[in-house]
Amino acid sequence: MILHLSLERINSGETPYQVEPTEQNGFYQFFTDGGVHYSVGFMEDDVLLSKNSYQLIIANINNHKSPRDRKVRDTIVSIVDEFFRCNNSTLLYICETGDNKQRMRSRLFEYWFSTYNRKALFTMISSSIVDAEGVVNFATIILRNDNPELSEIIVEFTESIQLLSQKPE
Fold it and tell me: InterPro entries, alphabetically (predicted)?
């Protein structure tokens, strides 16, 4: 499914950084006052959930140190808000583990969502999974409360997490 978000809606209102499309469908970018280049995108996900779901990708493209910048949160929340205005899909966020900062990313993402002014319209469930190498992975799903498959998706996510958490015999 091709994902088209309205940049006009994203950039109007409370979005502090100007969001632009990238060459990759479903991906957007912005630059912070501190020179950090962020990419935020949505990729169809068929690994963890079988129903209409997308994985949220947030990447610091130029690997610049990113100080606590409320404008980054507000910009990413605006992009996610527009995603949900256009879709009644499930959004899956899995924290990147390459630098061992996945726990911090998970807490930050949960904090961002806790400050979202429309959070009461959504269900958010977070979980951690320890892989075979002992690395703790964090996964979060967010879906609209009016999603007709809300209960089934929650059950599937919970079962998938339990299955992935079991040690192979």
Answer: DUF6169
Cα separation of 121 and 115, whole Å?
Answer: 13
Domains recognised in the chain with CATH numbers: 7-165 (3.40.630)
Q: Which residues of 30-50 are buried (b: 16+ CB within 10 A; e: fewer)?
A: bbbeeebebebbbbebeebbe
- How far apart CA 1 and CA 3 sit, in angstroms, is 6
CB-count exposure of residue 52 (10 Å: 0-12, 13-18, 19+)? middle
How large is the angle between the packed helices 102-114 and 70-86, nearest 10 degrees? Answer: 70
Amino acid at residue number 90? T
Cβ neighbours of residue 101 under 8 Å, at least 6 residues apart? Answer: none
**């998970």: which residue's tokens?**
106
Instruction: Read off the pLDDT of residues 17-29 as tens digits, 9 standing for 90 and up.
Output: 999 999 998 999 9
Relative to beta strand 53-60, strand 20-21 is unpaired
Mean pLDDT, rounded, for 122-131? 88
Closest C-alpha to 111, from 97, 99, 126: 126
42-57 mean pLDDT: 83
Q: Answer yes or no: are the C-beta atoms of 62 and 37 closer than 8 Å.
A: yes
